[in-house]
Write a structure and sequence with these properties.
heterodimer; A: 127 residues; alpha/beta; Rossmann fold; B: 249 residues; 6 helices; 78% helix; rod-shaped; ST_Response_Regulator (chain A); CheY-like_superfamily (chain A); magnesium (chain A)
């Protein structure tokens, strides 16, 4: 796993972005940027060479599930691995995210161990 | 059901025919008008009754003078209080993370320094060390001890800061409890309102009642606070993983 990969963390709460950033930094990732919803994230993704997206579901503006769908629709971004970290816990939603092409799904509250596990799994499958 | 007193009767109709046959046009017109007016009276009575009901209902409803105060003051106040809760919790989270982020490099620094002296230290412990190496080890250990002595009070201060940042719980708890009380009061008044105005509405809804509209699953619900009482949500990460692997993930 390339520790220099460029990661976008999308969450409307700055504290949650900060927690995820800290956990990622703990795992050795330092090239991290932030966005507070899908509408902010999408142009950043389209204009920047991001390698990985961590996104919340419930956000004002564009929700995480819609961001995921936009990413999969865009030829330049479709390959981008997306990890959802969200409090949304309905089975229907998890299935919906899976169908939309999510690479991993973590329900909040979560632990550092869970985040590491899912990251390892996602990049193990990709490589 | 027709109200016989207000409908035209067979007798009246026969009388009308007789009057017309006899050429008594004016009396026939009068009879028709009487019948018509009696029907109108019924309409006026009904409208009058409805107006009285509505008036009384409004009078009854104003019995709780708090309803005005609730909408004008209490609800905006509740909004401000909840915003305050967001502010306080965000502030606490940031204070905590500030302290933790300041602690982590100190812990890392100590860890690295200890790791650095460990090989020579292990040789010392197994009586396998040269004099010049022993001398430099002493300096390194001295350095570690001094740095430890400097860092630990700092860590202690930061930990105290983390502790103090938790004081939001008491304050936000009190604020939220007050908002819960207000929601209860508003609920009570809404129920009263429904009791007064809602019967007609209830009847109409019952008539057109179909299955409740299905909620869009993509619509975010936020944190589930009663997962153990619901069967449409997962109870934790393990269940998410099980569900995804059952989908071939």
């Amino acid at each position: 796993m390339d520790k220099n990969m460029k990661i976008l963390v999308v969450d409307d709460f700055s504290t949650m972005r900060r927690i995820i950033k800290n956990l990622l930094r703990d795992l050795g990732f330092t090239n991290i940027q932030e966005a507070d919803d899908g509408n902010t994230a999408l142009p950043m993704l389209q204009n920047g060479d991001f390698d990985f997206v961590v996104t919340d579901w419930n956000m004002p503006g564009m929700q995480g599930i819609d961001l995921l769908r936009e990413i999969r629709k865009d030829d330049n971004l479709a390959h981008l691995p997306v990890l959802m970290v969200t409090a949304e816990a309905k089975r229907e939603q998890i299935i919906m995210a899976a169908q939309a092409g999510v690479n991993g799904y973590i329900v909040k509250p979560f632990t550092a161990v869970t985040l590491k596990e899912k990251l390892d799994k996602i990049f193990e499958r990709i490589s | 059901m027709s109200d016989n007193a207000h409908d035209i009767s067979l007798e009246q109709a026969k009388e009308l025919v007789t009057l017309l046959e006899d050429g008594k046009q004016q009396q026939a017109n009068q009879l028709l008008e009487d019948v018509y007016n009696r029907r109108n009276d019924k309409l006026f009575t009904s409208v009058g009754q409805l107006t009285r009901d509505l008036h009384e209902a409004l009078q009854d409803f104003q019995v709780d003078p708090r309803i005005v105060q609730m909408t004008q003051d209490d609800l905006p106040d509740a909004q401000n209080r909840l915003l305050y809760v967001i502010e306080k919790t965000e502030d606490a989270a940031n204070r905590t993370m500030d302290a933790v982020e300041a602690c982590l490099p100190l812990a890392d620094d100590m860890h690295h320094r200890v790791e650095k002296v460990m090989p020579a230290w292990n040789r010392l412990m197994s009586n396998d060390i040269q004099l010049n190496e022993f001398k430099s080890l002493c300096h390194e250990v001295d350095d570690v001890l001094k740095r430890c002595g400097e860092n630990m009070p700092q860590v202690h201060g930061l930990m105290t800061e983390v502790l103090m940042a938790q004081d939001f719980q008491d304050i936000t708890g009190q604020v939220i409890r007050r908002v819960i009380q207000l929601v209860e009061d508003v609920e009570k008044n809404l129920i009263e309102l429904l009791k007064i105005f809602g019967k007609e509405e209830e009847r109409r809804n019952a008539e057109k009642a179909g299955p409740a509209p299905k909620k869009d699953a993509a619509h975010a619900e936020g944190p589930i606070i009663d997962a153990d009482q619901r069967d449409d949500v997962v109870g934790g990460q393990d269940e998410v993983d099980d569900l995804l692997s059952s989908l071939g993930f």
